[in-house]
Automatic annotation (TrEMBL):
Protein's name in the database: histidine kinase
Cell compartments where the protein resides: Cell membrane
Key word 4Fe-4S present: no
First-to-last residue of the parent protein present: 172 to 442 of 447
Principal subcellular localization: membrane
A GO MF term: ATP binding
The keyword Magnesium appears for this protein: no
Reactions this protein catalyses: ATP + protein L-histidine = ADP + protein N-phospho-L-histidine
Record keywords, A-Z: ATP-binding, Cell membrane, Kinase, Membrane, Nucleotide-binding, Phosphoprotein, Transferase, Transmembrane, Transmembrane helix, Transport, Two-component regulatory system
Biological process per Gene Ontology, one example term: cellular response to phosphate starvation
Entry EC number(s): 2.7.13.3
GO annotations of cellular component type: plasma membrane
Species assigned in the record: Thalassomonas actiniarum
Top EC class, one word: transferase
Domain Histidine kinase: 41-258
Amino acid sequence: NNEVQLELRLMAYGSDQILLLARDISRIHRLEEMRRDFVANVSHELKTPLTVVRGYVEMIQTTEHALDPHWLQAFNTIESQVTRMDRLVEQLLILSRVEIQADVETNTPIAMPRLISQLVDDAQWLNQEKQHKITLELDESLGITGVDTEIKSACANLISNAIAYTQDSGNIQVCWRQDGNKGIFSVKDDGPGIRPEDINRLTERFYRVDKSRSRDTGGSGLGLAIVKHVLHHHNAELGISSKVGKGSEFVIYFEQSRLIDLSETQVQEGA
Ligand code: ADP
């Protein structure tokens, strides 16, 4: 549309002069919208060819004919790279969805204890070989209102990061509770920690502290960007505290207006 969006700045100089600056930001907004649409479309279009490639690789891997070990290794590498690309495309799609859906209603009741324990179970099952000790502390009656797919994605990202970046047999504490008037979801690990200069940049798209390490863990650098957008959409905040060599803690603070008592609210299965 042809609406013009203006950014206004009012500045006072001394006690008798005022300066009003008006900047036309319509073009910036339109470009930003085009960028989002472009990323969403490209990600969507990449899904099909990736699925086809994966299908053929799996077919070859499971062929009845004996494969030369070199070929087998090549196909295993193709498979793991396709899995990485798949994950990246999936993350890009989620990110563009949460960026675009900023005005979707966020009022569905969510049973947080059930959602969180399911995420922890899944993560533990997928990472059995790492033998992390995950402790879970949940306020069983505390829920929130929000978009369940988005909240699930934000919580899952924090849990999977703690698992990915903490050394084998490390300790991870996942907690959901009310503190004063806030609902608090926290994930604490005794992993490598993050330097103060990196902490402020973690939620930027594609920002990874140690690129080679992150590549090993299958990371894309999009996880915390997704978390940031989801939280913005839910007027929630992210706190990160970390000490190099000691560990990190990621905390989501939900406003009181989002909190619900699950013993009094009917929540649909899956939400
Ligand atoms: P990625 O897909 O690379 O994990 P994220 O946006 O989720 O992307 O995280 C950005 C970077 O923050 C990671 O690459 C990693 O370097 C760092 N990071 C995130 N969580 C932790 C953690 N629990 N401990 C140490 N470093 C972390």
